[in-house]
């Protein structure tokens, strides 16, 4: 059971849908104020209304986190509304597919800008507030793709996710003296809104490949994030927690 986060403020990127929405909902349920960040104002507003109709504890903030200016604006608005930033969930990510011969400079830059640069820039923007509270928590949503597994067409995405873990390990050392922990979760196959649009045969095969017998859900990932964001996880930093239902365990394809 996650300890209470009452009175704390969390910033969640990619917070309008999917895993980010699940994280925001879980942290809100634990008592935190939540700032959800994304590029689409309309979907953010709808998510904020669903999460907290009163509007008292959720702030929707449209921003492009691939640039420093957008990240600093998010941090400034979070502090202006709630007075602090205690938890930073760096969840936003994109995964356009391109096989080796199709990778262009624009593709590389687009993926790196959101998945890696955005991670760095927003943590820089929130660093002072995380340190000021003396018990800051940073949780990065990486992936099993890249750090643990590979998938055709996702080589650039996988590289960006592996790069996030290198960043996590080193910056965890930099921030540890200030009481700030930095960790990552590595989701496997997660059932989100887009799953219903995928080939049913692919979904069935993906499900069979997971030893626990089902796809993961945003709530599964959110539970791990909430733990790492809690006081209970104060002695854990620089670590990566795989959340995949055992997907990466079998030596041969799981049937």
Number of distinct helices:
7
Cα Rg: 18 Å
Form type:
globular
Low-pLDDT sequence parts: none
The percentage helix is 40-55%
Strand order of the largest sheet: 3-2-1-4-5-6-7
Which sequence of SSEs, written as H and E, runs from N to C? EHEHEHEHEHEHHE
Q: What's the average pLDDT?
A: 95
| Largest beta-sheet details | 7 strands, parallel
Number of strands: 7
Helix/strand/pairing class, anyone? alpha/beta
- Give the CA-CA distance, first to last residue: 33 Å
Strand content: 5-15%
Tell me what the structure shows:
By secondary structure, this protein is α/β, with parallel strands linked by helices. 42% of the residues lie in helices and 14% in strands. It contains seven helices and seven strands, in the order E-H-E-H-E-H-E-H-E-H-E-H-H-E. Strand 4, helix 4 (105-133) and strand 5 (137-141) form a beta-alpha-beta unit. Helix 1 packs across helix 7 (218-228), helix 3 packs parallel to helix 4 and helix 4 packs parallel to helix 5. The protein is globular, with a radius of gyration of 18 Å.
